[in-house]
Amino acid sequence: MPPVDMLRPVAHLQLKAAALLLFTLALIVGSGLYLLYARGAFEPTQTLVLTADDSEGVVVGMDMTFSGFPIGRVRRIELAPDGNARIIVDVPRKDAHWLRVSSVFTLVRGLVGGTNIRAYSGMLQDAPLPDGAVRPVLRGDATAEIPQLMATARELLANLTALTAPDAALGASLGQVQTLTQRLQGPGGALQVLMGNAQDARKVITTLERTNALLARLDGMAAKADTQVFGAAGVLPEVRASVVQLNGLLADARQSLKKVDAVLEQAQAVGANVREGTADLGTLRAEVESNLRQIEGLVNELQRKWPFARDAEVKLP
User: Fold this and answer.
1) 80, 130 in Cβ contact below 8 A?
2) Residue 313: what pLDDT?
3) In the predicted model, is pLDDT for residue 317 greater than 50?
4) Domain extent listing, the chain
5) For the chain, which terminal residue's Cβ has fewer other Cβ atoms within 10 angstroms, N or C?
6) Contact 36, 42 (CB under 8 A)
7) Which one has a higher pLDDT value, 29 or 222?
8) Keyword set for this entry (predicted)?
9) pLDDT tens-digit profile of 277-316?
10) Opening angle at CA 114, ends 112 and 120, nearest 5
């Protein structure tokens, strides 16, 4: 049997149990209050209302992020009278300065992961977003493009199947390319492919050979002409000698012209004297003509006075 001292009742057992219960309850309440405080339940906030035509993927308690940092939390989701979804977001006052009147809000639903609400403020100099503001949210659903991608992929596979079919045009084109490659590797090569037959290709080769021979002859003629023109016994030295002689003749001609200039000056002086003499001769002629007229008048007078004279001719000395 156990000792009698161990079976004695504990003093104030009810009081101690009630104190333990109160302590446990206080601990639970304190933990809850701390969790609420840690989650910002007692922090002053402002309300932001986001409107969207579909709120699929949005749940109460999810965060709204700005540059990857949570600045708000979804408090309630409700249906508006116009059929749109209203997402009520609580934004702490200390983070509200990141939201401006020009801010843009997006609702992104990715292929992997949940839905995210994001805020973008391009101009932080704008006025702050007021409390209770209503803003539309832009939706970006990556899964909405999956049907279109599947249809495009299906169409692409159908086109590939048509291209790789045995009777497709691609097979015929590849056969023609193979034939062309074989002809290129043949004796005529690319020239025969371009001309269409071996005879025309041979004609082109013959023409090229004749052209090469003609060019060789032209090179020889050019070298010969160079020797005849620029050589020691060529035309150019003779032309140079002729030019030297021509320069000498031109120098003599210049000297002769100088002498002709002097003679012309003397001739001009003689001409001036002749002009003076010609003026004197004019005066003398006028005097002679006057004398002749006087003599003619005298002769006429004599003929009038002696009309019976047989010889009326008067001979002047």
Assistant:
1) no
2) 52
3) no
4) 44-145
5) C
6) yes
7) 29
8) Coiled coil, Membrane, Transmembrane, Transmembrane helix
9) 566 666 766 776 776 677 777 666 656 654 444 455 545 4
10) 105
Q: Is the pTM of this model over 0.85?
A: no
What token pair was written down for 197? 């037959």
Q: Output the six-digit token pair for 186.
A: 């043949």
Q: Which residue reads 């790789």 in tokens? A: 164
Contacts for 61 with CB less than 8 Å, ≥ 6 apart: 73, 74
Amino acid at 24: T
List all residues 6 or more positions away from 104 whose beta carbon is below 8 Å from its beta carbon.
Answer: 119, 120, 121, 122, 138
